[in-house]
């Protein structure tokens, strides 16, 4: 048996043990997410527009992550709308910045891995970098919109006559609580995912200026920053969507 | 409506815009800070193009352009030079330059003065995005944003320190160095958020137990399966033994998410105990399970997308170079997958472990 299969089985077992049916759904969501991510890669390699593929697959991935996580329908729906809003704003931000920063494709550090490969594949790597950035931020967007939506959902359940203005305020309060730990998830993810590259930088005595302009590092660094911006934006957006919905329902 | 408008911190936003403009203007003109020669393109002329087809029938176009510009710093400051640059439609490792852009160049003196382009100067956009993220954080979240940024700043310094020690040890003991770092990371981060409280110690205990347990489970799985399907040779940027490096990266990568999950569960349980002091240990454990199981799925996906997303360009390149789906997956995505699965196991373990630790160690009344 391969290591990936055994790790997967252990994960499934633990998720069933801890979360029961909900744990099983989360596991299915993870498998489907992988399937759609791989599908996106294959479709882009078939010369379909990377942006179009990403937007369609991205919307599917957001809905899978949110609706299979076990939140109730109302909360899930509002979280999904909010996450779409955040996604649209991020896409508008990501496209010009990827063109501006030119972190597409591969850097000098990749030379060894590229030996014998043809780079002239006729697909724009800038567009691929846009697709990569958008897909990488989806998890963070889904997580933060859901955390705020379910927090506010609980508040409306306990205080059915709360005002929508108060709800907006509470959304920011929840956001302030989650931002610190979410930031850690993102940055430790960056540190851990790129540990080999950081060691490379130190081993080869890169200067601060070298790192600040390095293509490979920045490709990953701005993705973490985009995810962070997505998390921050989801605080006012999710709070506003839920407060608006609350107001409409009560009038 | 007026009340909401009054609440928008206009002064703060204005301050950030002015600071931002100042910062970007400075970075745009920071060539004097660099030792490498920097070249500004004053004019770009299209020379010719060339249709190409590679051995895998991928069609592309190669363009050649002539760049006229000025060296901005160093010995050859203000010297006008002409550089020929080639780029393709794919732009995987090359790029099209346009007027006004800056690039690092290499100046050869033998046999005659000759300049070639090395890489694009991309500090301006990077600083812009970084500044944007920081501004949004402070504008929307005020003090909480500043605290969170402070904690990341301290952790980055600790990370750099660990890299220096690792470099000094020539890669020996990388797992030990980053295990110690993981302990310090969690201690410092939780201390900044929670202070010296009982809640902090419980969260620290849960975070470290689950992170190390997940890596241990990973190691046991590697032994049982003889690491089948794990291709360390596909690991990128490796300058030292890849296996321990991979383990150290996985450890640090999952730490943040496990801490995230533990913090959320334990702080909810402390609030619960505070509001209902008569609640039993068993009920605390059960509530912890309920809170945890709904947040574990999304959290696992956060790391999954980060670890797997970065493999996209190389996977596409592999597919376009005539490799099968299976081979492209193994060579590019298998390590990210293993990393995602091990962190996922840590995140799931955090649900019962943090609930259990809280139910045992929480004080009557739920005081922190």
What does it look like?
The complex is a heterodimer of chains A (251) and B (368). Chain A is an all-alpha fold and 251 residues long. Chain A has one domain: Up-down Bundle (Multidrug efflux transporter AcrB transmembrane fold). Chain A is 82% helix and 0% strand. Chain A has 8 helices and no strands. The longest helix of chain A is centred in the first third of the chain and has 43 residues, at 3-45. The mean pLDDT of chain A is 93. Chain B is of the alpha+beta class and 368 residues long. In chain B, strands 3-2-1-4-5 form a 5-stranded antiparallel sheet, with no helix packed on it. The mean pLDDT of chain B is 92. Chain B contains 10 helices and 5 strands. Chain B folds into 2 domains: 34-121; 169-366, Multidrug efflux transporter AcrB transmembrane domain (Multidrug efflux transporter AcrB transmembrane fold), CATH 1.20.1640.10.
């Amino acid at each position: 048996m391969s290591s990936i299969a055994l790790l997967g089985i252990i994960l499934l077992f633990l998720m069933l043990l801890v979360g029961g049916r909900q744990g099983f759904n989360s596991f299915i969501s993870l498998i489907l997410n992988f399937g759609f991510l791989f599908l996106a890669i294959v479709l882009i390699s078939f010369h379909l527009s990377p942006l179009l593929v990403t937007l369609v697959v991205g919307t599917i991935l957001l809905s899978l992550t949110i609706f299979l996580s076990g939140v109730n329908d109302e909360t899930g729906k509002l979280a999904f709308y909010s996450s779409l809003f955040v996604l649209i704003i991020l896409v508008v931000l990501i496209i010009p910045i990827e063109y501006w920063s030119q972190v597409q494709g591969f850097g000098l550090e990749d030379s060894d891995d590229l030996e014998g490969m043809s780079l002239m594949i006729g697909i724009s790597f800038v567009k691929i970098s846009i697709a990569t950035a958008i897909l990488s931020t989806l998890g963070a967007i889904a997580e933060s919109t859901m955390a705020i939506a379910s927090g506010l959902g609980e508040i409306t359940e306990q205080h059915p006559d709360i005002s929508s203005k108060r709800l907006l305020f509470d959304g920011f309060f929840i956001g302030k609580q989650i931002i610190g730990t979410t930031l850690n998830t993102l940055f430790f993810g960056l540190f851990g995912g790129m540990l080999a590259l950081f060691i490379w930088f130190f081993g080869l005595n890169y200067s601060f200026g070298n790192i600040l302009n390095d293509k490979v590092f920045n490709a990953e660094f701005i993705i973490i920053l985009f995810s962070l911006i997505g998390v921050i934006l989801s605080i006012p957006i999710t709070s506003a969507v839920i407060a608006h919905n609350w107001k409409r329902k009560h009038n | 409506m007026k009340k909401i408008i009054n609440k928008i911190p206009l002064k703060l936003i204005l301050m950030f815009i002015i600071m931002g403009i100042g910062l970007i203007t400075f970075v745009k003109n920071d060539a004097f800070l660099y030792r490498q020669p920097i070249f500004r393109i004053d004019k770009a002329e299209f020379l010719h193009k060339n249709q190409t087809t590679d051995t895998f029938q991928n069609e592309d176009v190669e363009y050649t352009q002539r760049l006229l510009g000025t060296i901005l710093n160093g010995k050859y400051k203000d010297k006008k030079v002409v550089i020929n640059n080639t780029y393709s439609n794919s732009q995987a490792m090359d790029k099209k330059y346009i007027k006004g852009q800056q690039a690092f160049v290499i100046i050869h003196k033998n046999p005659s003065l000759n300049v070639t382009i090395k890489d694009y100067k991309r500090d301006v956009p990077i600083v812009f995005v970084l500044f944007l993220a920081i501004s949004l954080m402070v504008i929307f979240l005020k003090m909480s944003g500043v605290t969170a940024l402070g904690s990341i700043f301290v952790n980055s310094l600790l990370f750099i320190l660990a890299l220096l020690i690792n470099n000094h040890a020539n890669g020996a003991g990388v797992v030990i160095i980053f295990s110690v770092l993981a302990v310090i990371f969690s201690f410092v981060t939780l201390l900044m958020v929670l202070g010296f409280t009982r809640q902090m110690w419980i969260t620290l205990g849960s975070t470290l137990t689950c992170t190390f347990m997940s890596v241990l489970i990973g190691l046991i799985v590697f032994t049982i399966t003889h690491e089948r399907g794990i291709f360390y040779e596909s690991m990128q940027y490796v300058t030292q033994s890849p296996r321990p490096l991979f383990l150290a990266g996985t450890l640090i990568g999952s730490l943040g998410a496990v801490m995230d999950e533990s913090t959320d569960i334990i702080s909810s349980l402390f609030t619960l105990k505070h509001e209902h002091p008569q609640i039993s240990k068993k009920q605390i454990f059960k509530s912890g399970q309920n809170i945890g199981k709904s947040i574990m799925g999304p959290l696992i996906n956060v790391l999954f997308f980060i670890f797997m997303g970065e493999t996209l360009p190389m996977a596409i390149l592999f597919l376009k170079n005539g490799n099968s789906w299976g081979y492209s997956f193994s060579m590019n995505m298998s390590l990210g997958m293993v990393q995602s699965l091990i962190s996922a196991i840590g995140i799931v373990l955090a649900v019962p472990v943090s609930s259990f630790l809280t139910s045992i160690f929480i004080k009557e009344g739920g005081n922190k």
